[in-house]
Amino acid sequence: NNVELPEEEKDMDAASAYADEMIRIRPDAGFSYQIKGNIYRQASDFERAKKVYEKGIEADEASGSSHINTAILVSAHNLMFNGEFDEARERYDQSISLARLPNGKITLTIYKMFSFLHQNRFDEAIDLLAETESEIDNMDLSETGVRSWKAGLNFHKFLVYGHSQRKKEAFEAIETNIAFREKMMVELDDEITRRDNTANFASLRAWCNVLFGDYDKAEKHLDEAKGILENINDPTILEGYYGLKGMIALNRGKTSDAVEFFEKVDEANNLYYGYFKALALKGAGEDERSNDIFHNI
């Protein structure tokens, strides 16, 4: 179910041989080519992946397969990773037009938004999110679905505003996200949902304050989140807390403290904090470990 094996157990040659056999058995099935393309993409060989994905699209077009939308989507991802952003967006637009359900269309639009974000084209990313949000009320969604997607789109607005250093808009997006989720939380009237959301709200506010350098305020929100999360029996539950604490220490120039916090985060599962962990290790003079993390990312 798309769960990767540990690195030492992976065998990409064997995977490739199985994919070739899939293509031999079903040369008219786009999915066979998708698997082969995924293997190249996993190795960052985007050019070879591109050629195989194209064969998959051609196969699906010839057979009239309903799989074609997925074939177009993975091709778009590959083009984006290869730096072919305009071509990727053409593919995303194709995929959006083929999607039958609102949830699919919105999800695909968010992928397209990231293609702008990767180019630092922040205004175009925001325009796309705002346009999509304005159309939500007219989509065939339940009331809960409308609120959920508006919350999600405002979270993505926060990502764009926060990483383009637009403070006022970033905080507004976070508070809008929280407001929609609070409404859903009240409707559900579920103790676990309330607990998890309350901790998440505090963490989001902390993250936003970290991005804009208000570390004292960020730590107050983190203390609130930790007070909730530390009572949950989950060994990974505090990774986000330690990740943000590490970012604060790093930004304050306390690299040793930052490394200590980041050691409690598995960078393989959390690339965002892994990036900052590598910076902290670099600052602490641990170049070899730092470079290993950067290479893996």
Q: Can you give me a brief rundown of this structure?
A:
This protein is an all-alpha fold.
Topology record:
Blueprint: H1 12-25, H2 30-42, H3 46-63, H4 68-81, H5 85-98, H6 102-117, H7 122-135, H8 143-162, H9 167-188, H10 191-211, H11 215-229, H12 239-251, H13 255-262, H14 271-283, H15 287-296
Helix pairs in contact: 1-2, 2-3, 2-4, 3-4, 4-5, 5-6, 6-7, 7-8, 8-9, 9-10, 10-11, 10-12, 11-12, 12-13, 12-14, 13-14, 14-15
Describe the protein in words:
With 297 residues, the chain is mainly alpha-helical. Helix content is 76%, strand content 0%. The protein is built from 15 helices and no strands. It has helices at 12-25, 30-42, 46-63, 68-81, 85-98, 102-117, 122-135, 143-162, 167-188, 191-211, 215-229, 239-251, 255-262, 271-283, 287-296. Helix 7 (122-135) runs antiparallel to helix 8 (143-162) and helix 10 (191-211) packs parallel to helix 12. The protein is globular, with a radius of gyration of 22 Å. The chain starts with 11 loop residues before the first helix and ends with a helix.
